[in-house]
Amino acid sequence: MLKIGVLGAGHLGKIHLKCIKLADQHFDLIGFHDPDPNTARAVAEQFHTRAFDSIDDLLQEVDVIDIVTPTTTHFTVAQKAMEAGKHVFIEKPLTHTVTEAEKLLVLSQEKGIKVQVGHVERFNPALLALEGIELDPMFVEAHRLAIFNPRGTDVSVILDLMIHDLDIVLSMVKAPVAQVSASGVAVVSDTPDIANVRLEFANGAVANLTASRISLKQMRKVRLFQQEAYISLDFLEKQAQIVRLFDQPQEDRQNMMELSTKDGTKYITVDMPDIEQVNAIKLELETFAESIIHDKRPRVAIEDGYQALKLAHQIIDVIENQTNKILP
Question: What is the predicted pLDDT for the residue at 324?
């Protein structure tokens, strides 16, 4: 069992503390540190765990550190933990700047430690339902809309919301991004609150992403189109639908539909995979523990977090200049 400590006991930090307690087959919660003494006292009482006076004191007692602090502090605290030889789980985005992320990436490799980034949508039941299905999308469409919440408006909607879909797309499309086109508008904050992005990949794949934090309704949907298949994912409702096209009738399938084409009759099947309802944060922490115990690459490794952050900042740069940018 791994000894773990949490840095940050705000809204999300308390959720992490709860999930760590639930994951008691993997973790022994040693305690947490929060710089606000009032918060520290209240959370220590709520979760019946120790509030450490300093990060250094907590680091001395644990094997793993879970960083749930403001993004602007990620680099400093993660660097301190890595230099102490601790495995690190760090909430998304990985760091505030790409340069900071590069430094952490190098440090993690030098120290030989595991780092997982909290892109929790990778553990959404809708996406997990696709495990075992070969994905090779050539067109991706994503909509991530949220009702306005002042929390998080200190950063662009790209880093606040769209970065989830950037990570998902990068994990699916097996080619580098070749071109970025983007536009965004700041409506109620100093940075873009709504943005639309078109990504063109070296293999010809295209992704069209929209994110808004000023919507009147919530939506988190991704649609994938690949050869002879269409896949629809609803991350909010935790549902998946898979439409496949076959040349021949499938004997093991009922409710098959016929489609006349110039190449003859095709056969369409529609599947609604069974969805296993899971606690996504608990699951991502548990898989991180497994990667440490069995010396495996984390499901969302630091390299993944770095690539998503790098692309997010490239998009922000394009929006600021309102031009298209050909990537090297």
Answer: 47
Q: What are phi and psi of 208, to 5 degrees?
A: -115, 115
Contacts of 23 (CB under 8 A, 6+ apart): 282, 285, 286, 289
Instruction: For residue 253, give both structure tokens.
Output: 């399938």
pLDDT at 149: 78
Read off the pTM: 0.91
Q: Are 67 and 89 in contact (CB under 8 A)?
A: yes
Asked if 15 contacts 282 with a C-beta cutoff of 8 angstroms, the reply is no
Using 50 as the pLDDT threshold, list the residues of the chain that sit under it: 323-326
Domain boundaries, the chain: 2-122+280-299, 125-276+310-326
Token pair 């003859």: residue: 264
SS3 content of the chain, % helix, strand, coil (to 5): 35, 30, 35
CATH code for the domain defined by 125-276+310-326: 3.30.360.10
Task: State the DSSP string of 129-179.
Answer: TTTTS----SEEEEEEE----STTTTS-HIIIIIHHHHHHHHHH--S-EEE
- Strand-pair partners of 234: 221, 239
Kindly report the CATH number that applies to the domain delimited by 2-122+280-299.
3.40.50.720
Strand partners, 50: 31
